[in-house]
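Pair request: fold both.
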Amino acid sequence: MRIVGGIVAGMVTAALVFWAIAFVGDLIFPLTTEIDARDPEQVTGAFASAPVGAKLMLLAALFGGAFAGGLVADRIALRRWAAWPPALLLTLFSLGTLFAVALPAWMQIALIVAPVAGALLAAHGVPRRTVVAGQGSADATL
């Protein structure tokens, strides 16, 4: 049950962090025109004319969401592999974006690499601290 709860909490965290960073990015780099999000041509045109900062904020949202979600899932489930399902959620979102919007090659690659890198860092880049029985704290990592 702990594993399932950790993964669910990680996915919720990944989505919330992704949308929070994307919202801030939209405040900093707003689109210049109103677009109909259901029209792929308008979305592609708006994204093509968007500043590089807006594109980088999208990548930061994917990375940050996968990192935060992976960290939460890993810490709750106590399994390193639990960091990957939240990243898979954001990678599937990225794949949907790739199929819906024409993007430059560097952005296509980065949309897949960003959530994978976030999960990798969450699962293996941040050591877990454990408490050893009889001691207040420990320096051991798993």
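--- second member of the pair ---
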Amino acid sequence: MEREWTFDLEFEVAQVRCRFLRQGKDILEYTVQLELWHEQIWNPVIRYDNAHGFCHYDTIHPDGTQDKTSIYRGDANTNFTWAIQEIRANWKAHCSRYIAEVKS
């Protein structure tokens, strides 16, 4: 089963895009991405996923470059849930970092 959805953190300011591929109760693949509405488009700011065979997050910069950092909080189910909670708790800081980089 595959599912994708978005939810607003602040209407027309920031949203989270979630996707997973699940077999039974086990998540096989996931993506949790924070997006910021800037210059009339949704821009990815940080993305948690398990692509490339390991759980990690990508810090995404306005110029399109990315910094990849490994994470491990348990299995993919645990990492998926943790990523959503982390973004909910820290989205303003992530967005502030992104905007500061736009201005520099």
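Observation on the second member. Helices lie at 76-103.
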